[in-house]
Structures are given as structure tokens and as C-alpha cells.
Design brief:
Length: 412
């Protein structure tokens, strides 16, 4: 009973506060949009205001969802900011557009509008209750001549009737406030808590998308392995076979030449073994499974063709799938930087983020212009990250720098 009363008082306090602040927040959002549209012709001034208004959609939605989850104890899933999946120059404006059109953001804003209206009514009913209580007290203890019902009922009877009206107004106002708290508790789950059917649909869609991304990532990885084998190890092994064939032909007639050919074949064989080890290390290095992401990336940075500044700050290990996806993302990004961007150096930063996430930023000082092409290395990174339940973004303007950001759940 005490807990129920406490929650009711807390909801009433929230309604009263939103009755004061909610209209101001919404008016500010409308003003940003109106002034932004009017200022579109003022040298970009309006664009900045519209961008701020678009981001306000997310901020207000986050505020409302966090407020209601803490107030009512509802299971409202924490949502990351919706972002565009594009990797070209349209990514930033498209991300702003995603904020405006995101259904969860719109539902949260609708909830804020409704609750702000309820808050205005709550303030009115609280005013009625306070006014009624004040009138009842003043009438009960004040001079009788001030009772407005005295001319009809007499001073004493009029005082009693006036006190009754004040008490009735107080009870009516408090009852109305209680009903408004019930309305708040009733509409919040409907608007903010995803229904079980919608949640299951979202999970199915997410699982389907991740399966497609995993299949695409596997196809890109298979293509890369075939290319490395075809372009590197296979020609070297063919050369070893031909060299040994020539050595066998010369073994009887020219032993010294045969010995030289055998030495050449031996050297080529060792080089092929090294290439196979590097290929296997690129698929899943043993140090990653044994010592974790920090050690594996340190070894990767040491082998890099360009200097790499590595900053890894992780307090614990993540799942093998997450570590493998993050390692692959960093390795492929550094490979692209060394091969295609003409970079002189690169910087890799990996940090922990709230919500049991790890975040990586890979930046090089190359010439930029990197794009995500179907079947390419960047596409393989994006697919593998998406298959692991993470997000991927690429920023690479002409002239550089190229920046890749990856966010992955530490635990599956």
C-alpha cells in the first residue's frame, strides 16, 4: 500500500512537472523547425537549426523513455541512436532523417505531448484542490461575516456549507489528479513498451538480417581466401614443383645445378609455409583465442607495413565471436590503409562503452576516397560486424582521412 501511494505521488509530481516543462520543450522543438525552415536561405543558418531539431527528436525520445522506465518500472529496451547504414557523404543527413522518421522516436514524442497535456490538467486540478482546501480552512477559522452563503442560510449554516464546498472541491481535485495518474500509467505501456508480437517480429527480422549478413561475410571471406591462395601460395607451390622436376632431370648429369635447384625449392617451400601461416592467422590467429584481443592486435600492429598506434582499454574479454569480428575489422582496415590509401600511419582505439559494448575507431592519414563496394574488403568487414550484431560506419572524404568505427556487443 505504501509503495502504491508513493508511486502515485511520484507520478502526480511528474505530471505536474511536465505540465510546466513539457509545453516549453515542445514549443522549443516547434520553434526550431519553424525558424530552421524560415532560415534555409540564410547561408546555412536554417540547416543547422533543422539538424538540431532532428537530433532533438532522439534526445526527447530518450528522455521520455528513461523517465517512464524509472518512474513506472516498465521494461523499455534501451535503444541506441538510430543511424544511417550508408557510407557515402549522404550518411550524416540521412542519419538526421532517420531520427525524424523513426517510429519509436515518434511514439515517444507523441507520449510526451499527451502526458504534457495531462500535466496541464493536473496543474489545474491541483490548483482546484489547493484553492478548495484554503477556502475551507479560512472559512472555518475566519470571521463569519465573510461567508458568501450567510445571507441565505445564516452565518453558522452558511459557514458549514461553505466549508463543505471547499472540502468537496479539494476531494474533487485530488480525485481528478489520481485519475490522471491512472491514465498516465495506462497509456505509457501502450506507447513505449513494445508489444510481444512486435518484439518477436523485430527479433525475427534482426535474426534474418544477421543471417544474410553472415552469409555475405562468409562469401567475401571465401573469395578472399581463394584469391590469396590463387595469387600467392598456389603459384609458389607450382614453382616448387617445377623446380624439383628440373632438379631431378639434372641430378645425374649436373649434381651441382640440381643441388642449387633443390635449395631454391627449399627456400620457396619455406616462403609458401609462411604465406599459409599468415593466411591462417588472418582467418583466426591462435593468439586471439589464447591471449585475447589486445595481444592479437599488438601482434597485428607489429606486422603492419605502416606504423600503427594502438590503444586498447578493455577490462575483460568478450565472446570469441565478438573478438574475431573486431580483429577482422581492424586487420582488414589496416590492410586497406597499407595497400590503397597511401597512408603513412594509422591509429586504432578500442574502448568499452555503456550497455556492454566495445567500440573501435580505425583512422589512417591516407588519401581517402574509400567506398564500400559489394564483395570488397570493406563490404566484408561491414557484413561480418552486422552478423555479430554490431554497427559499422565509414567516413572517407577525398583527401582523407579515412575513419572506420565499429561497435559490437561484448556478450552475445
Amino acid at each position: 500500500m505504501t509503495r502504491r501511494l508513493g508511486q502515485t505521488l511520484a507520478v502526480a509530481a511528474h505530471l505536474a512537472a511536465l505540465g510546466l516543462c513539457g509545453p516549453l520543450l515542445l514549443a522549443g522543438l516547434v520553434s526550431l523547425v519553424a525558424v530552421g525552415v524560415a532560415g534555409l536561405f540564410a547561408a546555412g543558418f536554417g540547416v543547422l537549426l533543422l539538424a538540431l531539431a532532428a537530433m532533438s527528436f532522439w534526445w526527447l525520445a530518450w528522455f521520455e523513455e528513461s523517465r517512464v522506465a524509472g518512474l513506472l518500472g516498465l521494461d523499455i529496451p534501451e535503444r541506441p541512436m538510430p543511424r544511417s547504414t550508408r557510407t557515402d557523404w549522404v550518411r550524416v543527413p540521412h542519419t538526421l532523417w532517420v531520427q525524424v522518421t523513426d517510429r519509436a522516436n515518434l511514439r515517444s514524442l507523441l507520449h510526451l505531448v499527451i502526458v504534457s497535456l495531462l500535466g496541464l490538467v493536473t496543474l489545474t486540478m491541483l490548483n482546484v484542490a489547493v484553492t478548495g482546501a484554503t477556502y475551507a480552512v479560512v472559512t472555518a477559522v475566519g470571521p463569519g461575516d465573510g461567508v458568501f452563503l450567510a445571507p441565505w442560510f445564516g452565518i453558522e449554516s452558511g459557514r458549514i456549507a461553505a466549508v463543505g464546498i471547499g472540502v468537496g472541491a479539494t476531494l474533487l481535485g485530488l480525485a481528478a489528479v489520481y485519475v490522471l495518474t491512472l491514465v498516465h500509467r495506462s497509456i505509457s505501456p501502450q506507447l513505449l513498451v513494445p508489444s510481444r508480437e512486435a518484439e518477436l517480429t523485430r527479433r525475427v527480422e534482426s535474426a534474418t538480417q544477421r543471417r544474410h549478413e553472415a552469409m555475405r561475410a562468409a562469401e567475401v571471406e571465401r573469395t578472399r581466401i581463394e584469391r590469396d591462395l590463387h595469387d600467392g601460395v598456389q603459384p609458389r607451390l607450382v614453382s616448387v614443383g617445377m623446380t624439383l622436376g628440373m632438379a631431378r632431370a639434372k641430378l645425374a648429369s649436373d649434381p651441382e645445378a640440381a643441388a642449387a635447384l633443390i635449395d631454391e625449392a627449399h627456400t620457396s617451400t619455406k616462403a609458401a609455409i609462411t604465406e599459409l601461416r599468415q593466411l591462417a592467422r588472418g582467418i583466426h590467429p591462435a593468439v586471439l583465442a589464447d591471449r585475447g584481443l589486445d595481444a592479437a592486435l599488438s601482434a597485428l600492429a607489429a606486422r603492419s607495413h605502416i606504423p600503427v598506434h594502438l590503444d586498447v582499454r578493455l577490462s575483460s574479454r568478450c565472446t570469441p565471436e565478438t573478438e574475431a569480428a573486431m580483429y577482422f575489422a581492424v586487420a582488414e582496415s589496416l590492410t586497406n590503409a597499407a595497400k590503397h590509401s597511401q597512408a603513412a600511419s594509422a591509429r586504432v582505439t578500442i574502448l568499452e562503452r555503456p550497455g556492454n559494448m566495445i567500440w573501435a575507431r580505425i583512422e589512417d592519414d591516407g588519401q581517402g576516397g574509400a567506398r564500400r563496394l559489394p564483395g570488397g574488403g570493406i563490404d566484408g568487414v561491414a557484413n561480418r560486424v552486422a552478423a555479430a550484431g554490431g554497427t559499422f560506419s565509414l567516413t572517407s572524404p577525398p583527401g582523407g582521412p579515412t575513419t572506420i568505427e565499429v561497435s559490437l556487443p561484448c556478450a552475445s
